[in-house]
Amino acid sequence: MSNVALQHITKRFKDTVALDDVSFSINDGEFFVLLGPTGAGKTTTLRVIAGLERQDDGAVLFDEINVNQYQPAERDIAFVFQQYSLYPTKTVFDNLAFPLRSPLRKLPRNEIEDRVHEVAEKLRITHLLDRKTAKLSGGEMQRVSIGRAIVRTPQIFLMDEPLSNLDAKLREALRIELQHLQKTEGSTTLFVTHDQIEALTMADRIAVLQQGQIIQVGTPHDIYDRPATTFVAQLVGVPQINLMKASRENGTLSIHDSAVQLPIPDKLDVESEFLLGIRPEDIRPAADGDQHGEVVLTEPLGVETVIHMRSGKQTLLSVVPGITDYRIGDPVSFNIVQDRLHFFNLDGARV
After folding, report:
1. What is the distance in angstroms between the CA of the first residue and the CA of the last residue of the chain?
2. pLDDT tens digits, 1-42
3. pTM confidence score
4. For the chain, how many helices (H) and strands (E)?
5. Domain 242-344, what fold?
């Protein structure tokens, strides 16, 4: 396995800049997630690392060696695609064995068989080894696709939204399995997704990509609790963060178009008008709450309930454990956890 670094990568497609001065590094054995919306440049980043696309500027380094001139086969990467990219007329065994039968490897037959059975056991697909992949379900095909990548030990695993075509329950199960496999194998992995839940639950570190630019790199805790911009703040968290215009005057913070007023935190250096972010879990209904509003909607989700509360013209989202007794039209008092407020300037940068 390798340390992988991108240094000032720029990639253009005619007049479109797909990647704009992208730099980040992935540590040996790290599960690194590239998070961003559709069209942000995530897949292009993977293809540049793999050598399937040539960047216009910048360098790709494997263990501090510049691999810009290396062909894809020379870079020794394993790619797991969103589409399964299997050979439908071959058996599961032959699909798993295919990377090991490369003339470059010259592995003996018994070693190939041992490795295929070892991977099949880890992914719980041993009973499928003699079946043609055209006869498999979507979840089984994705397991085989993942198995074909991990059957060998490449420099880095590149995974391009491998779970996005699966239903929610299977996606959750495979997410856990992938995490377990990565930790037990100690493999260097770059996982691309637009799903913030996958990013927050799987990553050692996350890089957030927006329109071809890296906005923030950090641990899941950093990305969630100290988002660098309003874009990052809104990208992670369900329900989405409450983000509202606010102003300060005479030591008091006021949310525009609402009755919410809070004391200004100590040492806060912010303009007179700014953007205030409050995570829904930090708005807590309480009988003796010092803020007041009206319930306009509740969303019972079993383990928790999302409460939509109106104060003036503003609607605030709150998350409470379990099922709530609140009904539409009920008055509600609430407190806001003041040491967990997020402040941004009007351009969206964190203060």
Report:
1. 38
2. 679 999 999 999 999 999 999 999 999 999 999 999 999 999
3. 0.90
4. 9, 20
5. OB fold (Dihydrolipoamide Acetyltransferase, E2P) (2.40.50)
